[in-house]
Amino acid sequence: MASLGLALLFAAIGLTLGASSEIAPQDVLAALTGTGEDWKSRIVWHIRLPRVLAALLAGAGLSVSGSAMQSILRNPLGSPFTLGISQAAAFGAAFAVIVLGVGSAAAGSEAMRHTVNPYLMTFSAFAGSMLSTAGILLLAKLRDATPETMVLAGIALGSLFNAGITFLEYFASDVELASVVFWTFGDIGKAGWGDIWLLIVIVCPVCLYFVRNAWSYNCLDSGDETAKSLGVNVERLRVLGMLLASLVAAVVVSFFGIIGFVGLVVPHIVRKIIGCDEMFLIPASAVFGAAFLLAADTAARTIVSPLVLPVGILTSFLGAPLFIFLLIKGRQSWRT
To answer: How many domains does the chain have?
Structure first.
C-alpha cells in the first residue's frame, strides 16, 4: 500500500511539474476532467500524461523482469541489464534502425523521437535479447555454474553486444547515427500514446503471469528437486519465465533506450522490506518499480531545469553503488 501511495504521489507530481510553469495543479485537474483551457489540456494529455504512464509501466515491467530472473536463475544479480539482455535488445533495435531502415527519415530531435515501424524494432530487439537469454539458460544448465559465473558471462555478453552496436554505428549515416545515439540515452520523454498501448498489452499480461505463478517460483527457490516433487514443471517454468521477462525488457528498451539497474535495484529493496515470498515480492516489485522510475524521471526533469536529463543517467548513478555492494557480498547467501 505504501508503494502504491508513492506511485500515486509521484504521478501527481509528474503531471504538475514541467517546462511550462503556468500550469498549476488545479489546471492539471481541470484538463483531466475536460474543463481546462485548450492549450493546457493539450500539454497535459499529449506530453505529461503519456510520460507518467510510460514511466509507471516501464518501471513495473523492468522490476518484475528482474525479480523473476533472480528467482529463475537463483542469482542475486539477475536483471535484464546485468545479464546483458538489455544490451542485446539494444543491439537488435540498433540493427533495425541502421540495417532494416526503421529509423526516422528526417533530421532533428523531434523526428528522432519516432521510428517508421516501431513494431519491427520491437521484434528485432526481442530477437536480440533471445540470443543473450539463450546463452544464460545454457550456462545455468552447467553443473558448476555459480551465480558469479553467470553474472560475469552476462557482463561479457553485454560487452559483446555493445561492440556490435559500435560496429553498426561506424557504418551508419549521420541521421541513423543520431537516431541510435538519441535513442540509447534511456529517455521516457520519447513516449507517445501508441507506445503506451503497446506497453499495456505486453507488460500487464506478463506481470499477471508472474503473479499467478508466484507459488511455483517459491518452490523453485527451494531447488529444482523440491519444485519437481511438488508438481512444478521446472524446465517449462524457467524457459517461459525467461522468455517473458526478456520480452518485457526488449519492449521497454526498444521504445525508451537502456534504463539500467531498475530491474536489479528494486527487487532487492523490496526484498529487504517485505521478505522473499514471491507471492508478495512480485506484485510489490511492480508497484515500487513503477514509483521508483517515475520518481527518477521526475527528478531528471527538474534537477537541472530547464534542461531535461535522460532518466537512464540517474538510474545508473543509483544502481551502480548497489551493484558494487552485491559483488562484494556475492559469496554470502542472498536469501535471509
So the answer is: 1
What distance in Å separates the CA atoms of residue 250 and residue 126, rounded to the nearest whole number? 5
Contacts of 323 (CB under 8 A, 6+ apart): 77, 82, 261, 264
Cα angle 94-147-145, degrees, rounded to a multiple of 5: 95
Half-sphere exposure of 192 (CA within 13 A, CB side): 9
Mean pLDDT per 10-residue run, the chain (336 residues)? Answer: 74 73 72 75 80 91 90 80 85 87 53 57 82 79 66 84 92 83 78 84 92 88 82 85 86 82 86 85 91 88 78 82 68 48
Specify if 335 maps to a domain.
no
Domain around 251: 2-328
Compute how many other C-beta atoms are within 10 angstroms of the C-beta atom of residue 319: 21
Is 151 part of a structural domain of the chain?
yes
CB atoms within 10 A of CB 212: 10
- In a domain? residue 336: no
- CA 212 and chain centroid, separation: 21
* Residue 333 maps to a domain: no
**CATH of residue 60:** 1.10.3470.10
Unique residue bearing C-alpha cell 562484494? 328
Q: Do 257 and 43 meet the contact criterion of CB atoms below 8 Å apart?
A: no
Give the 3-state secondary structure percentages of the chain, helix then strand then coil, rounded to 5: 75, 0, 25
